[in-house]
Amino acid sequence: MAENEDGAERTEQPTEKRLREAREQGNIPRSRELATAAVFTAGVFALMAMSGSLASGAHGWMKAALSPDPGLRDNPSKLLGHFGELLVQLLWVTAPLVLVCLLAGLAGPLLMGGLRFSGKALAPDPNKLNPLAGLKRLYGAESIGELVKSLLRVLFVGTATGLCIWHGLHDLRTLLNAPLERAIVDGLGFTLRLLMYAALALGLLAALDAPYQKWNWLRRLKMTREEVKREIKESEGSPEVKSRIRQMQQQLAQRRMIEAVPKADVVLVNPTHYAVALQYEGERMRAPIVVAKGVDEVAQRIREVGEQHRVAIVSAPPLARALYREAQLGKEIPVRLYSAVAQVLSYVYQLRAWRRGPMPQLPAIELDEFAGTDGRA
């Protein structure tokens, strides 16, 4: 179990903040085996794809290098220029292969944790100059792990190439008696096949090493419970986190409020900007309670949900505005609005029985003194 400097066990998984800080400092998971396998495999495929052009370029370069102009021997300046031309030709021939390997070398870190350049990682560390710390690293668990990986690399690659040579012994024997051109072609084919076996072995080792390096990286970043509590406390104090928490709480409260609309007996509207949903159960409630209320978009949503669940929608602008301003969500309506709300509920109950008789008339509700002054209709 990992421990910090105080001896406390690191049992908690690293938080997003700790992971982000580690990446900013250049501390990301790395797998040397994955990078090696990526470069080697890309190089082998590049050799296979560009074998024709590489062979032609190499042939021309060797011809120019081994058969120089006899006059160059007595002219040092021309001889130096000839060597410069040979160097440029060599770079031109090998440039595609080198470029493919470079791109593969960048792809390896991208697969693990991305590319991160941090000045902190390049800053001098006095601990690296400490002989005791150096001995600890030399004989530590990570050094033993690297030794084991080196042995596995030799085992995997040696086994793969050995099998390739074993299965190709007959072909190798035939090369001794084959014509020169045929022997060169078959020899290059066997070499590429040998390299492919080695690439497969390195790929298998990388497939084992990459998940281990990711797990080991997360293990080293584990935190104690006190560190997690301290980080949570610090995060809760930031304005961004507080704002996000308030926003989530408001969204949750609004969702719960909308979910309660189907339980309402009536939705009072004004009719466009305000909406208040009331529920009343005479057996267990002293007075109607407000299960939902809102303005503008929220009011429209309350009305839509009410219509979907066949809740009575009653247009009573003064009463709707008064209930919105004075009544609290989840609480009983104010006492002075009992009479007006009772008239509305009576109308709703009569409306439910409308199929058995004449349609009731909406009562005249006198609540002009509660009308809003914000200009909403």
From TrEMBL:
<keyword id="KW-1133">Transmembrane helix</keyword>
<keyword id="KW-1003">Cell membrane</keyword>
<dbReference type="InterPro" id="IPR006136">
    <property type="entry name" value="FlhB"/>
</dbReference>
<protein>
    <recommendedName>
        <fullName>Flagellar biosynthetic protein FlhB</fullName>
    </recommendedName>
</protein>
<keyword id="KW-0653">Protein transport</keyword>
<feature type="transmembrane region" description="Helical">
    <location>
        <begin position="86"/>
        <end position="111"/>
    </location>
</feature>
<comment type="function">
    <text>Required for formation of the rod structure in the basal body of the flagellar apparatus. Together with FliI and FliH, may constitute the export apparatus of flagellin.</text>
</comment>
<keyword id="KW-0812">Transmembrane</keyword>
<dbReference type="GO" id="GO:0009306">
    <property type="term" value="P:protein secretion"/>
</dbReference>
<keyword id="KW-0282">Flagellum</keyword>
<keyword id="KW-1006">Bacterial flagellum protein export</keyword>
<feature type="region of interest" description="Disordered">
    <location>
        <begin position="1"/>
        <end position="27"/>
    </location>
</feature>
<feature type="transmembrane region" description="Helical">
    <location>
        <begin position="190"/>
        <end position="212"/>
    </location>
</feature>
<dbReference type="InterPro" id="IPR029025">
    <property type="entry name" value="T3SS_substrate_exporter_C"/>
</dbReference>
<keyword id="KW-0969">Cilium</keyword>
<feature type="transmembrane region" description="Helical">
    <location>
        <begin position="34"/>
        <end position="55"/>
    </location>
</feature>
<dbReference type="InterPro" id="IPR006135">
    <property type="entry name" value="T3SS_substrate_exporter"/>
</dbReference>
<keyword id="KW-0472">Membrane</keyword>
<feature type="compositionally biased region" description="Basic and acidic residues">
    <location>
        <begin position="7"/>
        <end position="24"/>
    </location>
</feature>
<keyword id="KW-0966">Cell projection</keyword>
<feature type="transmembrane region" description="Helical">
    <location>
        <begin position="151"/>
        <end position="170"/>
    </location>
</feature>
<keyword id="KW-0813">Transport</keyword>
<dbReference type="Pfam" id="PF01312">
    <property type="entry name" value="Bac_export_2"/>
</dbReference>
<dbReference type="GO" id="GO:0044780">
    <property type="term" value="P:bacterial-type flagellum assembly"/>
</dbReference>
<comment type="similarity">
    <text>Belongs to the type III secretion exporter family.</text>
</comment>
<dbReference type="GO" id="GO:0005886">
    <property type="term" value="C:plasma membrane"/>
</dbReference>
<keyword id="KW-1005">Bacterial flagellum biogenesis</keyword>
